[in-house]
Amino acid sequence: MITAYGSELQLSADWLAGFIRGLVSNRLAACGNVIPAVRSIYAWDGEVQDDPEALALIHTRAEHVAAIIARADAEHPYDTPQVLAMPITESHPGYRQWVIDQTEPLSDAATR
């Protein structure tokens, strides 16, 4: 899960959509969902913040998480972007296979 914040909420959602598009294009994610409006309450620099943000759910495999974190560090507008990886214990078998197929390198996917 990755979140982004901008000076206005739409900027956040648009930034996340572009970030996810890049991940999908590079086969680091099968897909992503942008939730355009969430409210985040957190402590930062000694003060409690209360900000509108956008939230993304990124569907990928565990072996791509490190690359996604590195890319978020390089591209995200926050100094410390929220990137959380959560294990999925169950899924529809067809969906699981689709995620695997969409996140394989093209040379591997072509030989299947």
Largest sheet: 3 strands, antiparallel
Strand elements, count = 3
Helix content: 25-40%
Radius of gyration: 15 Å
Strand order of the largest sheet: 1-3-2
Portion of residues in beta strands equals 25-35%
- The CATH topology annotation reads as Alpha-Beta Plaits
Protein name: Divalent-cation tolerance protein CutA
Family: Belongs to the CutA family.
Organism: Nocardia cyriacigeorgica
Pfam families: CutA1 (PF03091)
Concise overview:
The protein is an alpha+beta fold. The protein is built from four helices and three strands.
Supply database-style keywords.
alpha+beta, 4 helices, 112 residues, Alpha-Beta Plaits
Explain the layout of strands and helices.
Elements: E1 2-4, H1 9-25, E2 31-44, E3 47-59, H2 65-75, H3 93-102, H4 106-110
Antiparallel strand pairs: 1-3, 2-3
Molecular structure report:
The protein has 112 residues and is an alpha+beta fold. It has one domain: Alpha-Beta Plaits (2-Layer Sandwich). A three-stranded antiparallel beta sheet has the order 1-3-2. The longest helix is centred in the N-terminal third of the chain and has 17 residues. The radius of gyration is 15 Å and the shape is elongated. The model has no long low-confidence stretch (mean pLDDT 88).
